[in-house]
Structures are given as structure tokens and as C-alpha cells.
Fold this sequence. Notes:
4-stranded antiparallel β-sheet; mainly beta; 10-stranded antiparallel β-sheet; 39% strand; Dup_hybrid_motif
Amino acid sequence: MRSLALVVGFLGLALPAVVSANLPNNxxxxxxxxxxxxxxxxxxxxxxxxxxxxxxxxxxxxxxxxVVGIGLSxxxxxxxxxxxxxxxxxxxxxxxxxxxxxxISNRRQVNPSPEDLERIGSERTRIRAALETYSEAASPxxxxxxxxxxxxxxxxxxxxxxFNDQPRNPHSGLDIAAPTGTPIHAPAxxxxxxxxxxxxxxxxxxxxxxxxxxxxxxxxxxxxxxVGDRVELGQFIGTVxxxxxxTGPHLHWSVALNGNLVDPELFxx
Length: 269
Ligand SMILES: [Zn+2]
């Protein structure tokens, strides 16, 4: 940093208003993250909610900021936080995500049977509950993540998908292609809050990093942690596989913030 400061000083340039290295990228779009300064000089962080959910608040150079996860289906335009009960507005900009068409030969996974639908419904409840975890006790040690698996990023977050020409939900995570058995490492410290073998997501692990920041790992071949385990940055949690609805082995990695699934790439370098 010293050499950078010297260079900048020498050139007589002002340092740009860079976001702290410990924050996700500020991208107020559907499926993105808004970093909203809170103009509060209090010692204790203000209480912030968005659509009725608690929001992560962190200390930045300018004081407190809310780090808000925006849902993929969010409307463009003005959104409101409640900061200590008072409204604070921020703007959500448009973003057009690319389109993807997939052919899936296992028809049962495209048009599930009634029994499958019952299973899928109860699993969805468990998955939502895990993704909506908000633990007050431990604040996240970092709001930047390490890459959980080395590999090609085969499918980005937000793709508008069609399976056998039927429209499906947009892609709610980042896919990283890697052979079955490739180790997966925790991208930050946290606590395992759920594991399971789900119809669509296959073998999955959910890590709560604190204050509404939760990560999910899907289609795993093996799960090597259990609910309640504390994991540290870089800890082995299991291996890449092809369980659930997949066309080949890969890690589907999702990041939830205040219950909304957001682009994992905003948290990595
Ligand atoms: Zn995926």
C-alpha cells in the first residue's frame, strides 16, 4: 500500500472511492448487492430491515453501511430499507441476464410425478429455511470469499433457463465444472446449518456465515461435515459430484443474503 500511496502522491491524483477490500462488489441490480451508507454516527450499528427481513450492517470508512441482497425478481426502481424504523431509499438498476437452453433426457426430472412433487415441496421448505437463516451472534469474519473449488465457471448466476424448451427459474448460483471427487473448501468461516440429499439439488451443504449471509453447495458426491459443525476458511467440506438434476459433475454454489439469492461472483476476486 505504501508504494501505491507514493505513486498516487507523486502523480498528484486523488484516490478513487474504492470499496473496502472486505465488501462485496456494489451492484444494485436484481440478483445483486447494494451497499447503502447509513449516515449514522452511533457507536452501535443501526437496525436495518428490507422487505421485513434483517439486513447485514457493517462498518466502512464512512461509518455504517447496509449490505443488501436483492432478489432476482426485484422490480427496477426505488427500494426502501427501514433504518431504525425510518425509510431510506436506494435505486435498483436493470440487468439483462443471458439465456440458456438445456435438453434433459430424464423426463421425470423435467416433469416430476405427484410423489416427487410432494417430496420437492417439503424439501423446498427446508432449503428456504436454511437460506433464510439469520444468526445475530456471530458476524461474518469476511464479506469476500475464496473460491470453493478450482475449475471452469461453466454457468453464471442469473441465466434465464429453458429445460426441453420449458421456461424454468433463472439460474440461482454459479456452476463450477470439476471432476467427481474434487475437494470443496469452505470459502469463509461459518457453521453448517443444513445438509441433505435433495431431488433437484442432490447432496447439499448449507453454511451460515452470520447476519444473513449463507452459502449453499449442491450436487456433491460426498458430504464431509454435519449440521452444527463449525468450519474455518479453506476447510474441506466434501467433494464435487453429479447428484440431483445435473448434466455432468459440477459444483452449484449459491450465496444468500437477507434471504435473497445473489451473484456469488460479487464476493470473489
Ligand atoms: Zn447451477
